Amino acid sequence: MISALPTLFDQRGAVDLDATKAAYEGLADAPVDGVFVAGTTGEFTTLSDEERLAVCAVAGAVFGPERTYWHVGAASTHQAGQLTAVAVDQGARRLAALTPYYFPATESALLTYYETVVARAAGVPVYGYVFADRTTTTVPPELLGRLAGTGLAGVKISGEGSAAVATYLAAMPDPQIAVYSGADLEFAEVVGIGATGVVSGVSSVLPAPFLAVRDALRAGDAVALEVARERARRAVVATRHGNLAHLKAVLELRGVAASGLRAPLDGISPADRRALATDVADLL
């Protein structure tokens, strides 16, 4: 169970590293297996390279290098390669790279992209990340299997249900390649078909329900799993499936400084904020 972390901003819109660190420290006591930093939940497309690396470094200091996945994906192979090299120099021991975005990448370009990132990582594990709905780059299962063959340690698949994840699993050239889903609600389903687990945005602010799902799966406790899954479902629904404004409002309920959004999205309304506080009161 890997938590996808938000990035916090001050009232002027600048990255607030102190507030970001406080949010991460609030999660660090929870026994999450890892954290995914500066990804979609972290609003990475709104960050400069320097800001992104600084946020990842904060997470690495809080969670330790072995639990921290630095996101180095970029719109171009050139930028992703540079981010990769600097991240490794700064102590990254886990890397993740979204496919190129905006321009729909060709197969040959994708192979070059991941070959470059893996080479610049110099032995540090790299995890691929596909999210067709957000990137315009479509990666069918057979192609993802070829991309994994460039030396990826694993892949994250977002925007797809467990049935699609199963087809990606079947295409992996090596069963040791970790496969994660970005679907918070399908933790049990994807593990049931053989995936490694989930990378969950909602768990970054409400970790307890998802940790309970993980622990019930590990223990093979069907009764505990049913209870935990319902609580996790409630967390996802209450936060509007990981809406960034709602996630940051939950952090405020946990005592973290208020943060605005850089992403071009609406903030949470007063009425929604009140409803959210009621809905998650027993999940904090």
From TrEMBL:
Annotated transmembrane regions: none
Active site: Y129, K156
SMART domains noted in UniProt: DHDPS (SM01130)
Coiled coil: none
InterPro entries given in the database record: Aldolase_TIM, DapA-like, Schiff_base-form_aldolases_CS
GO molecular function terms listed in the Swiss-Prot or TrEMBL record: 4-hydroxy-tetrahydrodipicolinate synthase activity
Keyword Membrane part of the UniProt annotation: no
Keywords for the protein's UniProt record, in alphabetical order: Lyase, Schiff base
Residues binding pyruvate, per UniProt: T41, V199
One matching Pfam family: DHDPS
Family listed: Belongs to the DapA family.
Protein name listed in UniProt: Dihydrodipicolinate synthase family protein
Originating organism: Micromonospora craterilacus
